[in-house]
Amino acid sequence: MATNENLPPNVIKQLAKELKNLDETPPEGIKVGINDDDFSTIFADIEGPAGTPYESGVFRMKLILSHDFPHSPPKGYFLTKIFHPNIATNGEICVNTLKKDWNPSLGLRHVLLVVRCLLIEPFPESALNEQAGKLLLENYEEYARHARLYTGIHALKPKPKSKTGAISESMIALNVDQVNKVAGDSANIQFQPPLASRVGGINGQEQAITPATEMAGPAATTVAGVSTVPKKDAVGTVAPMTAKIQAAEKKKIDARKKSLKRL
Quick check: is 117 catalytic? Predict the structure, then answer.
């Protein structure tokens, strides 16, 4: 296996800089895999361009750098099977940038962009896959059908893009805080234990008198035989309402006592 020892130190330094840049700001539709122990083999996942037979597919490829890189061009191979005039059945890529048009000043970003552009505009005149090249020239619809078939069978599926991170985490934290606050407020409410007595409900069913209906007292209304309790604006209003009810009951008892004394 080739390692970084096969490349000159100045080339390793330049490649490290390029790979870091590709990882932080990848070209559109291209994601590079980095192996810190071996810069001589570069892996990349290329998304099929929209409007082509390769759309909705991801194709994995690799660039193999020779020991005298960048004086000689890298060799490119598709690891994912693809039906394309300029890509052989063994995955070898035929593009002028990697052959006669190679320039030592060209970087990896340029090479990867050229390979992706090849999926948009093939060159059947220099075909490595003769069947694909012939179909492209004579019957594009049939060529596109073959290419889409290969894409559906062999290509990787794009990962769904979703927004995660600080936004979703903050929303989760907000929900947790709200639950904790409600739980804390509820702990401060002193409810009376449920009464054992029951009252008639709908269709002969019994309905238990709950602390809420007990505290509601006269404020409760009955609709179609169902006891309803007015909604509280805030938890803190329960205690004042209970105090008012108790005061009203006390007044009734005092009034009865006065009546009895008169008799």
Answer: no
Give the integer Cα–Cα distance in Å for 245 and 218. Answer: 9
- Among the options 7, 11, 42, 94, which is catalytic? 94
- Tell me, yes or no, if the pTM score tops 0.70: no
Mean pLDDT: which of 32-41, 105-114, 240-249, 252-261 is highest? Answer: 105-114
pLDDT in tens, 52-61: 999 999 999 9
Task: Kindly report, residue by residue over 32-66, the tens digit of the pLDDT.
Answer: 987 778 888 999 999 999 999 999 999 999 999 98
